[in-house]
Amino acid sequence: QVQLVESGGGLVQAGGSLRLSCAASGRTFSNFVNGWFRQAPGKEREFVAAISRNGGSTAYADSVKGRFTISRDNAKNTVYLQMNTLKPEDTAVYYCAVRPALYYSVIYLKPDDYQYWGQGTQVTVSS
Predict the structure, then answer these.
(1) pLDDT tens, 99-115?
(2) DSSP letters for 8-61
(3) How is residue 100 annotated by DSSP?
(4) Is there a contact between 94 and 37 (Cβ–Cβ < 8 Å)?
(5) Nearest to 32 by CA among 60, 9, 3
(6) Please, which residues have CB within 8 angstroms of residue 69's CB and are 6 or more apart in sequence?
(7) pLDDT at 77 (0 to 100)
(8) Other C-beta atoms within 10 Å of 18: how many?
(9) What is the pLDDT of residues 75-98, one digit of tens each?
(10) Which of 3, 34, 44, 60 has a CA that sits 20 to 30 A from residue 21's CA?
(11) For residue 74, with 0-12 CB atoms within 10 Å meaning exposed, 13-18 middle and 19 or more buried, which class applies?
(12) 41 CB contacts (<8 Å, ≥6 apart)?
């Protein structure tokens, strides 16, 4: 079993920045691929970013590319999402998710690919 706790959400004006953190416990963190997803009211959960076990591979949704950066610190069992130049359309509940992976460089983009989820943190961007 893996426990994930997100933090760092909040209210920010358009153009501002936030850094989300996701702390994991319960299993060997370096064995996991990490992903960030978000869900706005009335919309489906969508992919935001993902990072491979060793951090060497990353992927981003087109809507956040160039503005968001995913990173991980395996020594701290934590994955981060640095969000810059935030827009009102980034408003959503942000979830981190993990799943074990055999290979160091693989990443996953779909919610169904992930096994464990955090409870989410609200990000609200005002215009």
Answers:
(1) 999 999 999 999 999 99
(2) --EEEETT--EEEEEEEESS-GGGEEEEEEEE-TTS--EEEEEE-TTS--EEE-
(3) E
(4) yes
(5) 3
(6) 49, 81, 82, 84
(7) 94
(8) 20
(9) 999 999 999 999 999 999 999 999
(10) 44
(11) middle
(12) none
